[in-house]
Amino acid sequence: MTSRTGRNIEPTAALWSERADLAESAIVSRHLRTLWAVPGTALGVVGWPATKRERGFANWHYWWQAHLVDCAVDAANRAPTPVRQRRIWSIARGMRMRNLSGWTNNYYDDMAWLTISLERAERTQQVTEVRGALIALDKELYNGFEPEFGAVPWRKNSDFFNAPANGPVGIAMARLGRYARAQEISDWLDNTLRDKETGLIFDGVHLPSGEVEHPVYSYCQGVVLGLETELAVHTGEPRHVERAVRLLAAIEEHMVGGGVVIGGGGGDGGLFNGILVRYLALMAVMLPGEDSAQVNARRTAAAIVRDSATAAWENRLEVEGDPLFGPDWRLPARLPAVSGAGRFEGGSVSASRTPERDLSVQLSGWKLMEAAHTVSAAGL
């Protein structure tokens, strides 16, 4: 951002708060709807413009809604209002009703994301209605751990043990006070899925065969960064600080270009970069230590968040006064059409033809604005 004199001006925390307000407004107006006309419920329609199936919540994507809850908590924490506080429980209640069978499902990553969101809602916004959900989810996650492998599978009865499940399960365990279990998971991730050459975290491994799936995704880095930061704070054990600092260096080298988190997609992938920046912001404000390595790591994490948010904001579209973010924050966003919706296949959701229509992409944009406010408000 530049002034009329051509000098660079760093956006203030107040300005990032305004931008986060607009990101929230965009999702509330385009995506948030009452579930099946039941009062006191809400869910995010997964596409905009929406298909008939999407409007009726035939497609609804559990873990996207969990991140919608998390963003709603962000907004309430940043600027509390009765409307924002009610919205948190309305979305959670909508999830419970739409899920039909209760709070849980067969995917440990899904359940971990909802646990993280609801734990924050209870702890920071005193949403006490979530207590029963947290008890049920905690039981599933804790009992899903397989001691012979040292981790949880992606879903029940699967041989695939991956970072997208174990990272958030570890964070959830830490936030519920189960630090020993969280440390077991963090040690497994570091020993099993860290690429010794790049320092990045691989997707997962099939067990007991040991066949590693080598793709590296931004959200795998984000959840491991978040887990190591949580454990650094709550256990004081040096290995967690060291791992977080080392992983940040790998992220900066391999997943950031011109200061901005690179890449991006739609469907499930629309959430990947938003998850990374959420935990970069967490690291920036929470990582303990005053040695130069920790101080520089906090500054670097904050700078990546701010630069990514600036790029995403500059490349947004404005539709009726609200932002529409692109999947790649370095490129101009495009206006989507109703056609070309993504599909749920093989346990994951593919991108819409124009990824900007996916709720996941817009949630990442909202996460990014909230993360930029977080680091700016902390003076980073």
Q: What is this structure's SSE topology?
A:
Elements: H1 13-30, E1 32-33, E2 43-44, H2 52-55, H3 62-78, H4 82-98, H5 108-125, H6 131-144, E3 160-162, H7 163-175, H8 179-192, E4 204-206, E5 211-213, H9 218-235, H10 238-254, E6 256-257, E7 260-261, H11 272-286, H12 292-314, E8 317-319, E9 322-324, E10 344-345, E11 348-349, H13 359-377
Antiparallel strand pairs: 1-2, 3-4, 4-5, 6-7, 8-9, 10-11
Describe this structure in words.
It is a single chain. This protein is mainly alpha-helical and 380 residues long. It has one domain (14-141, 210-377): Glycosyltransferase. Helix content is 54%, strand content 7%. The chain has a 3-stranded antiparallel β-sheet with strand order 3-4-5. A hairpin with a 2-residue loop joins strand 8 and strand 9 (322-324). Helix 3 (62-78) runs parallel beside helix 13, helix 8 crosses helix 9 (218-235) and helix 10 (238-254) runs parallel beside helix 12. The longest helix has 23 residues, at 292-314. The chain is globular. Mean pLDDT is 96; it is low at 2-7.
Main features:
globular, 13 helices, 11 strands, two-stranded antiparallel sheet, 7% strand, 380 residues, mainly alpha
